[in-house]
Structures are given as structure tokens and as C-alpha cells.
Amino acid sequence: MRLFSLLYTIWCAFWFVTIFLLLFPFTYIFLQREEWKPYAHYINRLWGKLFFPLAGIRFRVEYRFRPEPRGTYVFCANHFSYLDIATMGVILNNYYAFVGKHGVKKVPLFGYMFAKLHIQVDRDKSHSRAYSLNKSIRTLAQGRSVMIFPEGGIVSKHPPRLHLPIQKGAFIMAIQQQVPIVPITLLTNHLLLPDEAPLRLHPGTVRAIVHEPIHTTGMTQDDLPALMERWLHVVEGTLFGEANRV
Predict the structure, then answer these.
(1) Alpha carbons 190 and 116: distance in angstroms, whole number
(2) What number of other Cβ atoms are within 10 A of residue 241's Cβ?
(3) How far, in whole angstroms, is CA 8 from its chain's centroid?
(4) pLDDT 10s digits, 106-143
(5) What torsion, rounded to 10 degrees, do the Cα atoms 232, 235, 237, 238 define?
(6) Is residue 105's pLDDT more than 50?
(7) Distance, CA of 132 to CA of 127 (rounded, Å)
(8) Mean pLDDT of the chain
(9) Domains of the chain, with CATH numbers?
(10) C-alpha closest to that of 175 among 107, 231, 233, 245
(11) Is residue 46 packed enough to be buried (19+ CB in 10 Å), middle (13-18) or exposed (0-12)?
């Protein structure tokens, strides 16, 4: 089984990198002008839609809410696996900006794309967190959605238990711009690609639930704790409910 797991991971890594390299020239062109960037985002989504079938990974997504493709939302999901970012492009049919770690910029080519298309934050530096929050708010004001993991990274030691306390940024920006929070529960990514050494990808099914939005119209920053608690109730409740069912 260990040999199969290693060979499967190598097979997936080959296609992951090969598809990215084949599509990168188009991504690079579309990153050169602001009005072209939605096309670069579409190329990234295409990357995922090509990769996962080749990897033999299926998707089973329950849409309790289908976001309007041109709507503006703050998408918030649990984050237990490096697979989470790639799966979002398949799950969501929206133009959104990820809020992610600044260390990604060190990855050749991928780092360039991420820096040009998404929002980077160094969570160890308060000025970087403030900058990323302000940039996220401006992004929402321009009508583009934001995708963020409120746990602040892959930090949970015992999935499916969330890492607490969650970060406030997603909820501050949603209230500031009066846009809905859309909770997303990723149920199986941590089983397909566990955050443990050595990294090994396993075949299977990505299971996810896109929940009903939590509307922030009329909320103020005084409602921040209650909004965070509602997101926790939805996502954590679903994680443990599904785990107990299995």
C-alpha cells in the first residue's frame, strides 16, 4: 500500500505541475492587465477541472445555496489540507480573491500568479494583516468576492476539530461591506491529502457543502462575535454531524 500511495502521489504531482505549466503562458498574458485578470482566474479553475479527473478524484458537492456567479460574497471554509485551495476552483463558479500566506510567493511561477491575482498576508506581522484586510475590503467594494480560511492556515491538530480561536478578518470585512458570509464545509480533503509528513495523496471523493449565506445587512462591528459564532455553528456542527454519521 505504501508503494501504491507513493506512485499515485508521483502520478498526481506530475499532472498537477504539467497542466499548470501548459496553462501558465495564458495565465501570464491575462495577468498583465487588470481587466484581463478574470480570465486568468478562469484558467486557474480550468487547471483544477483538468487535474482532478486525471487524478481519479471525484466531487460530490451539496449546494444548499448556489452563489450567483456575479454576486459578491465572503466565502469562508474550514482548512485542513493543501488540497483545499485547488478544490475551490471546482466548487465555486465565482471570481474571487484568496487571502493566503505570503510564503506562497516563493514558489516559482505559482508564486507570481498568486501575488498578481490574490491577496497575501504575513500573519506574524500586524501591519501585513492590516494591509491585507484593507485590500480585501477594497476588493469587495469593487464587486469581487473574497475566499478566506478563518482558522488562519492549516493549523488544526485534530481534524475535523477546528482550530480556535478563529481569525476576525473575514467577518470584519463582510460587515464593513455588508456582503453575505457563505460558509463552506470541506468534509474529506484532509483524508485525501493529510497534513502530515511525508505528504501523500489518496484517491477518493471531495465532499463539500456550500451552506446558506449569513447575511450581514444592518450589522455593525458590535455584531462581530455573534457573526463568528454563527459561522462556527454551521461549519463545526456539520463537520461533527457528518463524522458521527460515518
Answers:
(1) 28
(2) 11
(3) 24
(4) 888 999 999 999 998 876 666 778 889 999 999 999 99
(5) 180
(6) yes
(7) 9
(8) 94
(9) 58-245 (3.40.1130.10)
(10) 231
(11) middle
Closest CA to 230 of 241, 215, 240, 244: 215
**CA atoms of 153 and 26, how far apart (whole Å):** 29
Residues of the chain with pLDDT > 70, as a percent, come to 96
Distance from chain centroid for Cα 106 = 19
Task: Please state, in angstroms and rounded to a whole number, the distance separating the CA atoms of residues 85 and 52.
Answer: 13
Q: Which H or E run contains 166?
A: none
Contact 178, 226 (CB under 8 A): no
The residue among 87, 33, 36, 80 whose CA lies nearest residue 61 is 87
Centre a 10 Å sphere on the Cβ of residue 4 and count the other Cβ atoms it contains: 11
Is the pLDDT assigned to residue 15 strictly greater than 50?
yes
Nearest CA among 96, 90, 103 for reference residue 76: 96
Q: What is the length of the chain?
A: 246
DSSP secondary structure letters along 56-80: T-EEEEEESS---TT---EEEE---
Which pLDDT belongs to residue 243? 55
Residue 136's H or E segment, with its range, is helix 126-141
Cell numbers representing residue 173 in the block: 470585512
Give per-residue pLDDT as tens, 26-70. 999 999 999 999 999 999 999 999 999 999 999 999 999 999 999
Strands 74-77 and 181-186: parallel
